[in-house]
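Quick question, first post here. What does this chain look like in 3D?
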Amino acid sequence: MFAGAAAFAGAPQKVVSLNVCTDQLAMLVAGEGQIYSLSALAVDPRISGMVEQARAYHINSARAEEIYLMKPDLVLAGTYTARASVEMLERLGVPVLRMAPASGLADVPLRLREMGRALGREARAEALVADFEAGLARLRTDAPKQRPRAVGYAANGYTSGAHTLPDEMIAAAGFINIASELGIDYGGRMPLEHLAMSAPDLVISSTPYAGASRAEEVPQHPVVRAVTGGGAPVSMVSRDWSCGTPLVLRAIEELAGKRRALVP
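> Answer (accepted):
Ran it through. Tokens below.
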């Protein structure tokens, strides 16, 4: 919902985004010239799926004074984005739209429509929703009767279970999510022993950052390699898993390709 100034006349013409997910939703929905600035993460290829498009815009560091001086008529933020800056902008009367993160695939059309209303681009949003729903239906139709079992295993052994976007993406790609099978709700740490005993057909991990920490060494542990037949976990491009946008279809299709190699 909107906070700050009550409203503005017509569609906003100078939009600033402070969140990598609102960055991408805005780029997908906005009309020419509507977006003025995006967050620094918009041009980080490890987390943004639209880096090339994002390079066309000013990049901000989400500081309240910096954003205020841009004189935006709408600021886009996530629920948990730069809270001090967002609250300051709201107190200064700047219109702010805080968008909640997606917790499932059904949230993708909701976020597109929310962005469409905010930018006065409802028709564009509906076209994106139609394309997304058709693509998701096609992927779900492709799922096999007998599903192999997969598990996400990220830094420090973190995994996503039921009631999460990754869980629904894994299911849409034709897998059973072992984390959900084990009763993990939302997300949490899976001990290596549980991973080994679950005997997954596929272990999904993110691409490690340069100069990886000890937490990021966990998915490369010898136990994980043994579970995966001596190989490394399958590194999926994490940027397409990060936000509730139509880009999740690209990640699901990539994962479905891994499933087809296991179960045609």
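The CA atoms of residues 225 and 231 lie 5 Å apart.
The chain is about 40% helix and 15% strand.
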